């Protein structure tokens, strides 16, 4: 299931890794390489589950329909706004964790390399 385009009508075959994805974002999440652009795109209709190829160089309006079931698969994408919000939140959490990690590392450092004053203070305690 694609969480970027909620109303995706087709899957697209990535020419680079020969995998089916609902959108380029899904590909980016699963793969570390860039999606290769091709002139002959492979599609899989979600309605009739049949695969077909389109020459992107000669793409015209009639090509926006599945050749098997006439499903209009080129449609305005419904993009869930909540996903964008959650991603922003995650980035903030990650940044905070990175900061904590640095603070911890610094503390560890001083524990292993105590200067005499600090050692005395610890013993007093
Ligand atoms: Zn790929
Ligand atoms: Zn997606
Ligand atoms: Zn179809």
Automatic annotation (TrEMBL):
Q: Which residues form the CHY-type domain?
A: 1-71
Q: Could you tell me the keywords of this UniProt record?
A: Metal-binding, Zinc, Zinc-finger
> Which domain of life does this protein belong to?
Eukaryota
Q: Which InterPro entries does UniProt cross-reference here? A: Mito_Tim_assembly_helper, Znf_CHY, Znf_CHY_sf
Which positions carry the signal peptide feature in this UniProt record? none
List the protein's name. Answer: CHY-type domain-containing protein
């Amino acid at each position: 299931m694609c969480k970027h385009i909620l109303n995706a009508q087709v899957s697209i075959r990535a020419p680079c890794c020969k995998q089916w994805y609902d959108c380029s974002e899904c590909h980016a999440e699963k793969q570390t390489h860039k999606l290769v652009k091709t002139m002959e795109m492979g599609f899989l209709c979600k309605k009739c589950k049949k695969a077909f190829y389109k020459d992107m160089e000669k793409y015209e309006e009639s090509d926006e329909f599945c050749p098997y079931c006439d499903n209009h698969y080129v449609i305005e994408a419904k993009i869930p706004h909540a996903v964008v919000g959650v991603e922003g939140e995650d980035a903030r959490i990650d940044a905070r964790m990175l900061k904590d990690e640095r603070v911890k590392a610094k503390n560890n450092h001083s524990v292993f390399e105590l200067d005499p004053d600090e050692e005395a203070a610890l013993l007093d305690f």
